[in-house]
Amino acid sequence: MPRAGLTPDRLVAAAADLADEAGLDHVTLSALARRFRVKDASLYTHVRNLKDLRTRMALLAGGEMIDRIAAAVEGREAGRDTLGAYAGAYRAYALEHPGRYAATQIPIDQDLVADSPAMRRTADITYGMLRAYGLEEPDLTDAVRLLRSTFHGYCALESTGAFGAPRDVQASWDRAIDALHVLLRNWPHGQRTTDA
């Protein structure tokens, strides 16, 4: 019989907390079993395996992150104001919840992504923000990849203290967002994808 009160949601929430405390790599079924004072085998009633657990963590964290972003961009003027709010909420979540954020970077089966309301909401908000710059496919996907790469790279470096110059990190972040805004307003539409 499963331990009273032990549910998939409780397990995933505990795993997310453990990831924030100790790092995503330290989230194991054994570590969770110790946290709940149960045998490892009893967790398989609630999750199939470690990959299933981490996928659920990724979906949980993705939902939390987009909730924060949605609240930040609500009512903002399209353009630099929305981009800055979006980016700021992204960065705050990544720095405050490093383990959860790491979970959002793992590959997830595309069928699960398509079935996830949080992932659909993320796409709607992100693509909506970029459509306000006049972008259409395939430029939308290229712009999403650019923003994600920039935000992730900055947060990854900042979280490890890799920015050693005396320049204020927030000031550099603000300038990066300014530069992205200028780039998005002046996106090179219709450019060739290869050099001939």
UniProtKB/TrEMBL annotation:
The residue ranges marked as DNA-binding region are: 28-47
Instruction: Please name the InterPro entries in this protein's record.
Output: Homeodomain-like_sf (IPR009057), HTH_TetR (IPR001647), MT1864/Rv1816-like_C (IPR025996), Tet_transcr_reg_TetR-rel_C_sf (IPR036271)
**Keywords assigned by UniProt, alphabetized:** DNA-binding, Transcription, Transcription regulation
Q: Entry's SUPFAM superfamilies? A: Homeodomain-like (SSF46689), Tetracyclin repressor-like, C-terminal domain (SSF48498)
Q: Which domain of life is it from?
A: Bacteria
**Entry's Pfam families?**
TetR_C_33
Cite a single GO MF annotation.
DNA binding
Domain HTH tetR-type: from-to ranges: 5-65
Q: Does the keyword Transcription apply?
A: yes
What is the protein's name according to its record?
Transcriptional regulator
